[in-house]
């Protein structure tokens, strides 16, 4: 059945095209706005997530190329940082270079070439080893001489079009060590500035001896002079067993000697000679205590030791607080290797090292005890080497081939362990959480987020401790007690306070408030107590005041009656604080050389706690200023929006205004007040400028009110300038942001659920 | 100073006496309004030179067109208008012979004496039980037996007991509109006031609920002096003993309800009660 055709609508009933257009247009516009906000928030979340994800990836490796090598028996290899000209060392210290020509194709391939090592013909090599961090080749002879050959690379730009890597050797003069005429079995060398130290295990008529020598360089007028022997040390006396391994750090001030028994002696050089500082056994509790390998990771502070079962442990130097000396302690235990390792290579960029034998190789990261990559190679490797920029690995196999592998491991230190677990760091006793993101390349980075999260909670806690009572009480007062005419002035004033830039608050807190408060803690505490006590006394007195006085004071102006005496008692409390400080907290001031009343010194001396000028106590006040207006405004609105009929109903039943506020208005406004608290909480968690300026930014892990803190947000602000784009720190700062984001997101979600529940429960009847 | 303390004590004793001998003979006019003028601010006067007496244990109805000041007068009887900024009054209102504006009179004690039921029912977001005992709780009384007894007595007096006795601990918001208004009446009488002010208590209710409230008012006047503001002239005629007609802030006519409706003396009253304006 067909509908009857519509009759033409008379013009006066027609809807104007303009009206229709604007209706549709505005509906669309508002919808686009709403959706874009959701999309934007989601995008920020995804963006931050994408920035942090690479932190949790393990290393990727990929075989890149294989090169055939000249027919020589090579036993060591290394490469320049541009990965173009690797070097190979043969048993008799011949050094070959191979031009791989992988990066620059503009030059003729130099092929395989050899640089002279300048060793005389009578120098018969009895020992050769390579320092994989410094490219120093240590060579010892059958007759007790030694030298150090340092491989250097220099990029040159012979034409404008490209780069060529020019290798060179710098060779130390041939010097004697130990007894002349006896072969050197092991040789180590360390140099820093003018200090140079070499040590050797020597075989003398079937016995082993231990010798060391320091080298000196005469400084001429125009150039550095010849390097000559300075002092000789015969350390055979100090030996307690047959030495198998020795190590010298680049500090060149100590020797580590490993014995057949598995013991390690830490010999320290002083002006009077070497003395034994410490003796330890890395595998004391193992069935095979004998040490197969012992090597430094970057920084020469930690040693990686393995035994014949492939067990691997790390011992690091730390400052022993009892003796105030630096000694070794067991810090890490890595999973055992399947076979005893044959080669070791330390990264020059971080605390990673490569350890392997035959076709098994394992790339491990010392700080986090993490295995970055581990696997079976398609060949039997004689030696492995991490490229200087930690972007590749090269292997020498048993059929004289060079295997070139790419290594993609941008953030070896990053990971769950690094961020959230206790770690035994180099130089520090025990397992701790710490944040110390930058330093020289040898420095072990400390990236624990735990102290930052604790700092954030600490800052938020003290801020809320100050803000919540003040903001809520003033909101109740303004909405329920203050005369409406005064309220019209007070509320906008508080809202202006909310717009005060936090950098101004931070500035005040750091430069004015913190010295003031920190030097007068008892006065501040007693002053505030005095304010409350004063108000309480007035309150008690109020009920006893004769009616004809009390009832003459108009409603809404009682605050003058309360405020003035409360203020007076507060000032009395402040002055009492000064007296109490002089009386109870008398401490000897070393600077003034007399006893002074100082709570600050008392906290440090008697309680043994730290006391910093920029502390949580100060931050509580400064942050309170930032948070109070927000909590105040929103909860005042919530309280004022409670239907007037509740107030009238309660008052008509003979309730006082306070009873009305507490028993009826407050529960009804609970949902709104809860939102106010949550928004204030969010502001406190995310607040940055005040935290940066007034906290001192020291990383702490306690809730001591007299120390500062470093919050996640302040950390981002402070460290951003240090962070290289897409570097580990950069991404870690994004992780901080992510944690903040998740923190507030979770809190807000819980808060919203609770708020809905409260609203249902205390809903005003419609 | 000693004089004023004594006076204060006298006021309190008087109140106590009044509560005790509620069964004594009727004391005539409990509320006296004398030369009363009321201003919301300096320029807007809403009540003009009122003089009237309201008798004890009777229902007095205030009628008149919107804006005539009848609600304002009602709310002045227990000083609920004090919450408004800038109000001013002249003349006096006496309750039981004592001025409500006496500076020695605590306004809380005045409101304990005068219960009030509002136009829109306003139960608190609490349970039925807690709504009823609210006035006792704010007075600091918390003996369980006393509270229980009060709840039962008040709800029975408000004819609500049978309907809610099984759900005293449920939210008051679960009740119907009429039940809520009766709950508010029960709440108002829980503390045994002397006077009950009702500000258009039925204006938001349907006819059946209105009938129940009117029945209730009839019952309550045995114990309480009731002043009711209403727009509904039939209601005034049904429930009240005396009726006051206000127009533009002035008391036009005040007499027995029967006289007002059957035999109004003033032509304006006649026009209003016969429905010719309003």
User: CATH H-level name of the domain at 450-761 in chain A... which superfamily?
Assistant: MetI-like
Distance between the termini of chain A: 47 Å
Beta-strand percent range of chain B: 15-25%
What percent of residues of chain A adopt helix (DSSP H or I)?
25-40%
CATH fold label of chain B:
Rossmann fold
Return the average pLDDT of chain B rounded to an integer.
84
| CATH architectural designation of chain B | 3-Layer(aba) Sandwich
Q: First CA to last CA of chain B: what distance?
A: 52 Å
Please give the largest β-sheet of chain B.
6 strands, mixed
Mean pLDDT of chain A: 87
The coarse overall form of chain A would be elongated
Q: What's the story with the biggest beta sheet of chain A?
A: 6 strands, antiparallel
- What is the 3D form of chain B? globular
Reading off the top of the CATH hierarchy, the class of the domain at 450-761 in chain A is best stated as Mainly Alpha
Query: Helix/strand-derived class of chain B?
Result: alpha/beta
Q: What fraction of the residues of chain A are assigned to beta strands by DSSP?
A: 25-35%
Structural class of chain A: alpha+beta
Keywords:
heterodimer; A: 766 residues; alpha+beta; Methylamine Dehydrogenase, Chain H; MetI-like fold; six-stranded antiparallel beta sheet; 16 helices; 36% helix; 30% strand; B: 278 residues; alpha/beta; Rossmann fold; four-stranded antiparallel beta sheet; 11 helices; 40% helix
